[in-house]
């Protein structure tokens, strides 16, 4: 939201009060409160008919400082609120500054108002200077804004899933959940958190609408504003983007670790297509006959009868024996997923049950909120009501007990503000926050019934903390290269916002993709953390495109399954540290200015560079950071290695895509390509790529508590590979030299050259 008309003037009807004079401070044990007058105070008369702005500084966690700016403090307390946890750690406070770990917030003295944020060396990271804080009155009501400086070359990332450029500078972004597809400025997953390449991140602690002007209204500042009389935000010190993400997810929640089977290939019925059990069997059998190893089969909306969403009852006209069908699919080694949403259509038998028991969201006059958008006469489940949560969860439990393994928790964005919530929540704040309650209920059902580490969602909407309930997918895209690219931008933006796992509809949701689009998207999809074939009005089984599509899907599915020891290790890292499996280049290479704006490539885990191909002819350009990188899937006619830093332009057929291995990598490659969940240690091959001098350790995940650790030690041309763990068959490969090792051997020695 913009409040100014150029640099000098405010917009018509808008007045803004800014801190001008630091009047007084009150240091506490771990807090600092300051009062700022909005004009210079030269004598007692200046204190009359004047506003006083209160600025409270606190340290909720090491290297984190919270700032709360307020005008009138008589507003009633509103909910919901983000769940932010942490321990203060070492905090020091004096009359004008507070220090938390390596981060200091310092107030200027006297009439030159400023709030600066400094690192441990005294370097200024950012700050709120003259006219940075503002108390706004205008035709749109009262607001508070804050502006934090952006230095030369400083850029901003994050703010949830956004489909425009990865760098947010120059953009106006409203944090407001919308069902807008992947081709607009709207987003399903809105997160008022960003980080910069200047060593800090910012979380605006407001679950309602937050309006950002990122170097747009004031081109040297990031402005954020909220309605009301107070604004709270947290500055999070890095210094690296990875450090900021780690600290942010420590505050707001780390992702759960999805089960290994969820990393396999998902196939769906698609949305409005005709299907029944015979269709499902035909698809599943067709995949098996073509050696296309499925992990999950998903039933989209029409597993329930039309106009009944949701009643959680299988449509008996097309699925007469759901328990038997689920068992038959399980006997084939498949997991199953069902589509759900948090809405109850009027025709559903659950509507009257929810209405009569007070489980549905109400209008201010006491009527149930209803509309015909999406489902005829639909209402919303009121998840602020504990009884409604239990009621909804009970319907899901019955399905899990029947044999269902996962839920696609769709929607959660179309939440009205002219309603009343059971617990008195503020409607404006609940609009964005509703998804958190919804996905939490669904995830907890799966975790409670299936056990820790076995719960997984396929969720569309999210806000701060939503990363705790993986996986999220990108929403309704189109079957074009442009939409494939915008999907990737949305995913990279989301993973810059604390989310560890992400997926997208391979081939695009809307429309029937051209075979070339489908095949290019297959490579991208299987080199993502989670991989799902899904469409709207057309199926996504590959033989409907051409036989080459079958071969491409088989090849990349096999590749992903062989890479599972590495991918699952990256998943564990996401669970433990918050670092995403798919990493934006600025997160992976913060010291390389060439990666600042890159949004057509990413790192899959710490060591694999992926550059999806967005052209039918296979032309692709991508950037290679410093070092000697190895092509894992070389295109014909290309050299096996690339020396960076440099840009590369090359052409790929459908069987390959740019997949490069970072120098110094010890890549664990599994022995199986028929499924994603197996003992990764059994028959594992260690591939050594430009092994580094010194000692490198790599963990190959095994069953709980039974990992195997390999060490690679290099001195000149001599390389020694050792193993600490269970004695299982394994081998080492480097270049053209392969050394086979028997099960009882613990080490081997290689000579490079």
From TrEMBL:
Residues 255-569 form the Glycoside hydrolase family 31 TIM barrel domain. InterPro entries: Alpha-glycosidase_related (IPR050985), Gal_mutarotase_sf_dom (IPR011013), GH (IPR017853), Glyco_hydro_31_C (IPR048395), Glyco_hydro_31_N_dom (IPR025887), Glyco_hydro_31_TIM (IPR000322), Glyco_hydro_b (IPR013780). Keywords: Glycosidase, Hydrolase. Its EC number is 3.2.1.177. Pfam families: Gal_mutarotas_2, Glyco_hydro_31_2nd, Glyco_hydro_31_3rd. It comes from the Bacteria. It is an enzyme of class 3 (hydrolase). Residues 578-667 form the Glycosyl hydrolase family 31 C-terminal domain. Residues 55-213 form the Glycoside hydrolase family 31 N-terminal domain. Belongs to the glycosyl hydrolase 31 family. This is Alpha-xylosidase. It comes from Actinoplanes subglobosus. The lineage of its organism: Bacteria, Bacillati, Actinomycetota, Actinomycetes, Micromonosporales.
